[in-house]
Write a structure and sequence with these properties.
This protein is mainly beta and about 60 residues long. Helix content is about 0%, strand content about 30%.
């Protein structure tokens, strides 16, 4: 298992995270809503996933 947090590219500024992905949602964390600000990304406080706005300032793959 890797210690590097997952990076997810999204199209919307308001996203939700429940820690699921490779694990069933029941084994993740409570669902929370996050808002991407002027930095162009936001990190989940539970699982450290980083959500990057596609085409935003933090998107290096523009």
């Amino acid at each position: 298992m890797s210690n590097i947090p997952e990076t997810i590219y999204v199209r919307d500024r308001r996203i939700s995270c429940d820690g699921s992905g490779d694990v069933p949602a029941a084994l993740g964390h409570p669902k929370i809503w996050l808002e991407i600000d002027e930095k162009g990304y936001v990190e989940c406080g539970y699982c450290d996933r980083k959500f990057i706005l596609k085409g935003g300032i933090a998107d290096k793959a523009k």
